[in-house]
Specification:
mainly alpha, His-Me finger endonuclease fold, 4 strands, about 120 residues, two-stranded antiparallel ribbon, about 50% helix, two-stranded antiparallel sheet
């Protein structure tokens, strides 16, 4: 009897592990800081966002194996990094270089990749 239970145990853990990880991920989900939320709601950010969208031609900037994404609706401006946060368009060196215009699905992927890299 014990041999049957112990031989099924690894299988049981494999089956339970993905759902258990999802629960842990949900609990660990980061909240946006009040500073970030205030900035994203500001007129200054709306100006920066509009500049980035205009630079991108109001189209997702993701380039994949089949070329550039063609999505033009539901666009979001993604920070590649936060070194220039709040001053994305100050001067020539920071003229929106840390921003990419992405559709929702590519933005989700980009954030997922950034999170994975930060865990390393």
């Amino acid at each position: 009897m014990w041999a049957q239970i112990s031989s099924n145990l690894p299988l049981l853990l494999v089956v339970l592990a993905p759902s258990a990880l999802l629960v842990v991920r949900r609990k660990r989900r980061r909240r946006l800081s009040s500073e970030y939320r205030a900035y994203i709601s500001s007129g200054a950010w709306q100006t920066v966002r509009r500049r980035a969208l205009t630079r991108a031609g109001w189209r997702c900037e993701h380039v994949g194996l089949t070329g550039r994404c063609r999505v033009r609706s539901g666009l979001q401006v993604h920070h590649l990094h936060y070194r220039h946060f709040g001053r994305e368009w100050d001067g020539i060196k920071t003229s929106g270089e840390s921003l990419r215009v992405l559709c929702r699905s590519h933005h989700v992927r980009a954030d997922r990749v950034r999170r994975r890299r930060s865990l390393r």
